[in-house]
Amino acid sequence: MQCDLPIVGMGAVASVGRNAQDMCASIRAGISRPQPLDYYFSLDPDTKDLVPVSGHAVTALTEGFLLFGAWQRLARAAMDDLYRRANLPPANEKHFWDNTALICVLPVLNEDRFQSEVSNAPSAVKELFFGPLASYCGITVDHPGNIISYNGHAGYCEAVQRSNTLISSGNADRVLILGVDSYLDSFCLEWLDTNFRLKSGESPTGLAPGEAAACVLLEARASAENRRALIAGSITSVSLEQDCGFDAPNQEESGRGLAAVMNQTFGATENRYIELLTDQNGETWRAIQLSNARLRLSALRQVEVNISMPFASTGEIGAAWGPLATIFAVHNFQRGITSGSMIVATASSESGMVGAWSIARTSRDQAA
Fold first, then answer.
1. Which segments within 58-163 are labelled E, that is strand?
2. CB neighbours of 93 closer than 8 A, spacing ≥ 6?
3. Is residue 319 within 8 Å of 107, Cβ to Cβ?
């Protein structure tokens, strides 16, 4: 899907930065801040001792909070960062906020992960998380454009597609997309450990759990220009497909969907060199999927791909990946790290949904 969605606001919080600017600078510098989680242990294969698992926590911000509480704390911190930097109207500016929709990207509702019945989870999420967050943001809770995506990593692509529909149809002037996730509660750690996905002495190829929230504000170009908003970049295409999830029995078939969305997102570009942001986190199934996708892609077009993996700094941050990758791409443009005019990001959800989207620099960055 081709689109033109200007990015007029960004905010984030992660283990390596309490705001988007510091977080991106830390990722670029290769900074990582894992720390032992003193409430979950794994067996050291050499000493046979129980040792704490390492995780990428946002120190102090989420301590003592679980699930909705942790999500709310992370989400509000990211929103505060966006509000400070985007110079947005106050909450009592009704015309502005009444024409703003909120889309939240959350993890896949997996009963094994949350160790509870999830059939009633959507209503609980709306009451205990989404409603309070919308009120905090100044957005109408019952705006018809508001939705919650429970598709993890690739849920961001679903949110971008929904945003394009809302803005192009005139049902919203702007859409705030927020992704939040935490892999650090004991339920999630046990689920990861049971499925041999947790990085430890016994499983060196597993993921390092983390937590984060990130948000981007997308706005109709005419609206943004009329109020003279600073446009940081724009999303120019987005694609979604189905691929193999982490528990697929035959990983050799993986990569077909990912290759398809990458090819669609690369579009008609004649660039031979493309910057690619991926959600590789150390797990074998993700590495196989990306490798297979690149092999299939090479049969379709001759491109040189430079891959960046921000999770090396932040740990696995799940549903926060999409907006975080978008922010990181814009930051690279603004800092002159990337010489090209476009960066492509991909996302692979544990359920098998995969997506890709392209972020373009502004003419101001191009001139710089």
1. 100-105, 147-149
2. none
3. yes
Reduced to 3 states (helix: H, G, I; strand: E, B; else coil), residue 169 is coil
Which among 78, 59, 74, 15 has a CA at the least distance from the CA of 327? 78
Which residues are CB-neighbours of 107 under 8 A, at least 6 positions away? 113, 150, 152, 181, 318, 319
pTM for the predicted model, two decimal places: 0.95
Q: In this structure, what token pair is assigned to residue 300?
A: 């379709």
249: number of Cβ within 10 Å: 6
Q: What is the pLDDT of residues 172-207, one digit of tens each?
A: 999 999 999 999 999 999 999 999 999 987 778 899
In 3D space, the residue among 11, 18, 352, 355 whose CA is nearest the CA of residue 162 turns out to be 355
Helix 256-266 to helix 284-298 angle (10° resolution) is 50
pLDDT band at 364 (very low <50, low <70, confident <90, very high): low
Instruction: Starting at the earlier edge strand, list the strands of the sheet with 342-348.
Output: 147-149, 100-105, 174-182, 211-219, 2-13, 233-242, 353-360, 342-348, 273-277, 304-308
- More confident position, 62 or 43: 62
Tokens encoding 199: 């990085």
Residue 273 falls in which region: left (phi positive, over 0), alpha (psi -120 to 50) or beta:
beta
Place of tokens 């098998």: 352
Which of these, 224, 213, 193, lies nearest to 107 by C-alpha position? 213
Give the 3-state secondary structure of residue 81: helix
* Structure confidence by residue, pLDDT tens digits, 321-336: 999 999 999 999 999 9
Q: What's the angle, vertex CA 65, arms to CA 61 and CA 67, rounded to 5?
A: 115
**Domains assigned to the chain:** 7-226 (3.40.47.10), 233-367 (3.40.47.10)
